[in-house]
Amino acid sequence: MLSTMQDVPLTVTRILQHGMTIHGKSQITTWTGEAEPQRRTFAEAGRRATQLANALRDELGIDGDQRVATLMWNNAEHVEAYFAIPSMGAVLHTLNLRLPAEQLVWIVNHAADRVVIVNGSLLPLLAPLLPHLPTIEHIVVSGPGDRSLIADAEAQVHEYEELIAGRPTTYDWPELDERSAAAMCYTSGTTGDPKGVVYSHRSIYLHSMQVNMSESMGLTDKDTTLVVVPQFHVNAWGLPHATFMTGINMLMPDRFLQPAPLAEMIERERPEHAAAVPTIWQGLLAEVTANPRDLSSMQQVTIGGAACPPSLMEAYDKLGVRLFHAWGMTETSPLGTMAHPPAGLTTEEEWPYRLTQGRFPAGVEARLVGPGGEHLPWDGESAGELEVRGTWIAGAYYGGAGGENFRPEDKFSEDGWLKTGDVGVISRDGYLTLTDRAKDVIKSGGEWISSVELENALMAHPEVAEAAVVAVPDEKWGERPLATVVLKEGSTADYETLRTFLGEKIAKWQLPERWAVVPAVPKTSVGKFDKKVIRRQYADGELDVTEL
Ligand code: AMP
Questions:
Q1: Which one of 11, 135, 187, 433 is the catalytic residue?
Q2: Exposed/middle/buried for 257, CB within 10 Å: 0-12, 13-18, 19+?
Q3: Which long-range contacts (CB under 8 A, 24 or more apart) does 145-151 make?
Q4: Mind listing the domains of the chain with CATH numbers?
Q5: Among the options 287, 331, 455, 466, which is catalytic?
Q6: Fewer beta carbons within 10 Å, N or C terminal of the chain?
Q7: Could you tell me which of 27, 83, 95, 17 has the C-alpha nearest to residue 53?
Q8: How many CB atoms lie within 10 A of CB 177?
Q9: Which of 316, 315, 327 is nearest to 435 (CA)?
């Protein structure tokens, strides 16, 4: 029997139309570094997005599913591009401005981007790449910056404001197939070439609904969200789309991502919600410890992208700021899990649940797979690789112009589940605890040591600012942990002290014997610990290692 329900495609266009009408008064506030931030309503941003779509079609000739790239910070204009491009049927390609030049060139060419919309402040980054980007025909520049840097560009240069000025504020939006491509994002690619994940209108729509649910980020039009996670990192975790659905105001830091301006933004604008990776929250904590600021408006902070050290969550609890731990990947849109403790628990009973990566929402199915391919029970003890599937989970990578989309064996199971490369356990009541990346786990004498567990224990020491632990080759055990530690200013802690401190929580055989103090932990383009670099530094003898 067929249902009697209407079949309305789930599209980004519908999210845009909803946001700019029903939530027309909600605001996007963009930090400018000046006395007053820029403020723009959803209605205004929606009208400007419509004008941008008109300009892209009529002036720049964008047609069908051609790719329009953005090289931008988090700001109102970037939100306009987020809605204009997919709504007209084209594909938004967000470029990660922290990628090395050769990777940026590779992904622009692979995606065959025709246009790039760029913030003026990022022209020094774009200009030297242009001779290597033959598919780019138009450059649209937004905001302050030195235009002379691209004076010799072969591509045609446009000013964003001039381009959209006077254009119609209506558009005959096409009725799109909800399964068609809306946006794409390349994985940060620690090994091999970056891989393109292509989100559909349907996946974005369903993911946005989940982001808004109280089970996940619980956004409402009464609040403001501080979107620190970059719009080039998995669509800012879905926030720009989700906000247009529920009308929560957006606070955008633009290029002011350093701890001091972030602290000022929070104190002045008082957002209830925020989202960022742990390194951002670590930096902010150090800042407000030195220069106190009122952060207490933040009742719902989403922290993810890397494991949240318990000491960090504890420190923010003391400031009256509540962190919620979430797990996800570029391939999962990214919302995979979020750690809301079950109902009816005391604060003390909630604590261990808050430290897990969280529970899976209804749209995400999960299973754990052991080394022999066997499926493991959810008993809180059996550790295996996490595999997931669902409506907003990637089923393949983009094959490039004329190429077929592809499904590498190490990334997809035969029956189509995404192999996450993350190792962990799932409790009987469905909470995921990750112990490591499969490639970061330390295999010592046939036993596994969790690098994350050692890092969390080390970062709980009051004199440790950051700590990263990696596996290094060992003649006797195969691999052993190397602890690299960033000490807080004025610290006098020595290795013996740190090792003794670790020994209070960690089994003796797991304690590292190799130690190095470093000025900073190397970070990836999206602010996570870059363990590949640490392993290379060790192999090349660049670290001053002490053996205990
Ligand atoms: P990316 O695609 O760059 O966002 O990276 C995804 C990877 O980040 C995941 O596969 C995990 O290894 C890691 N990750 C994300 N969130 C968490 C978390 N809450 N705890 C531990 N690792 C995480």
A1: 187
A2: middle
A3: 145/119, 145/120, 145/121, 146/120, 147/120, 147/123, 149/123, 149/124, 150/123, 150/126
A4: 8-28+35-196 (3.40.50.12780), 442-547 (3.30.300.30)
A5: 331
A6: N
A7: 83
A8: 13
A9: 327
- Whether 178 is catalytic: no
Residue where the block lists tokens 């051609």: 66
Question: Closest Cα to residue 525, out of 26, 107, 90?
Answer: 107
What ligand 1 atom has the least distance to the C-alpha of 326? 19
- Has 488 been annotated as catalytic? no
Residue 286: left if φ>0, alpha if ψ -120 to 50, beta else—which one?
alpha
Dist. CA 290 → ligand 1 center (Å): 30
Only one residue has tokens 């807080």, namely: 488
331 a catalytic residue = yes
Nearest CA to ligand 1 atom 20: 307
| Tokens representing residue 92 in the block | 């938004």
pLDDT digits (tens, 9 = 90+) for 251-300: 999 999 999 999 999 999 999 999 999 999 999 999 999 999 999 999 99
For residue 327, indicate whether it is catalytic.
Answer: no
Per run of 10 residues, the mean pLDDT along the chain (length 548 residues) is 97 98 98 96 98 98 98 98 98 95 96 98 98 98 98 98 98 98 86 89 98 97 98 97 98 98 98 96 96 97 95 96 97 98 97 98 96 93 96 97 92 97 96 91 86 93 94 92 94 93 91 95 90 94 94
Find all residues with CB under 8 Å of 227, minimum gap 6, and list them. Answer: 74, 236, 239, 240, 250, 251, 252, 253, 274, 275
- Our mutation pick for probing the ligand 1 site, out of 422, 524, 531, counting the most ligand atoms within 8 A of Cβ, is 422
Helix axes 201-212 and 12-22, enclosed angle (nearest 10)? 40
